Amino acid sequence: MSDPRTAVVLVTDYGADDSYAGSLVGALWTADPDARWAVGTHGVPPGDVLAGAYHVKALARSFPAGTVLCAVVDPGVGTDRRAIAVEADGVRCVAPDNGLCTWLWEEAGERRCVALPVPPQTSPTFAGRDLFAPVAARLAAGADLEECGPRVDDPVLLPAAFPRRVRTELYARVCVVDRFGNAITTARLGDLAGARPVAASWIGGGTRRVARTYADIGGGLALVAGSAGHLEVAARDVPAVARGGPAAGASVRITLGPG
User: Fold this and answer.
1) Which of 42, 61, 229, 230 sits between 20 and 30 A of 190, alpha carbons compared?
2) DSSP 8-state assignment for residue 130
3) What CA–CA distance (Å, rounded) separates 70 from 37?
4) φ, ψ for residue 65 (rounded to 5)?
5) Cβ neighbours of residue 150 closer than 8 Å, sequence gap 6 or more
6) pLDDT band at residue 1 under the 50/70/90 scheme
7) Cβ(259)–Cβ(195) under 8 Å?
8) Rounded to whole angstroms, how far apart are CA atoms 95 and 13?
């Protein structure tokens, strides 16, 4: 008989140099010795909740329904910020209520959210180990979301995640610079509302090129629609910043034309 458990996917800013990521796995196995897990990424920049929200959204698109994301980018650990578990179109996510679930929640057709009680033994500096991992293991073993806490309907959403549109301009920001140097923005294809991007500018640079693939970019910079549905400023074969592209956190103005 196949194991009915679903996988727990870890999404953190813990990196690979310390014991934090391993401790998270230990907590999963303490809660459920048969827990199945995978690393989504431990490479979120420290404390960068907006970048974490992008990775949560991107990973949720890649894993099957039933998967549990254990997302821990938690600069407010130990404070009175809530802990939540979200279900969005069949994918669950256990996380601090600081905006990590912004796009996961906002883009879902069917969704629900519960507030998680904090066990008294939870470390004020390591809720990932003491709270989020055990709840993730419980959900992956078959518990319903509402067995883990009371229903709430107001998870924190990051204002910075949503571009501002003024006539034919979309004002976004770079939320992630990936390993290849692509500057991924908060502007999503759905934010275009039928228009098409024709140019982008930022302090110190800009481009009027739009490409379908990285190979089409040639020798400069171009706007590309990335695999998670976000517009990005990219270069071919080198990081975009090496050709004057925007850095992480930079504001980017995207000019729109008729669709």
Assistant:
1) 42
2) I
3) 10
4) -55, 145
5) 114, 115
6) very low
7) yes
8) 13
Domain 7-152 listed as CATH 3.40.50.720: no
In tens, the pLDDT along 128-181 reads 999 999 999 999 999 999 999 999 999 999 999 999 999 999 999 999 999 999
Say which residues have a Cβ less than 8 Å from residue 192's Cβ, sequence separation at least 6. Answer: 170, 256, 259
**Overall fold of domain 163-257:** Elongation Factor Tu (Ef-tu); domain 3 (2.40.30)
Token code pair at residue 212: 């379908």
- Supply 11's token pair: 């999404």
Q: What average pLDDT score do residues 220-243 get?
A: 96
Amino acid letter, residue 164 = R
Q: Residue 15, Cβ neighbours under 10 Å: how many?
A: 13
Segments of the chain assigned to CATH 2.40.30.90: 163-257
d(CA 232, CA 146): 37
Residues of the chain with CATH 3.40.50.10790: 7-152
Q: How far apart are the first and last CA of the chain?
A: 52
CA angle 86, 87, 90 (to 5 degrees): 160
Per-residue confidence (pLDDT) for residue 3, from 0 to 100: 57
At 94, the amino acid letter reads V
pTM of the model: 0.96
The two beta strands, 36-41 and 7-12, are parallel
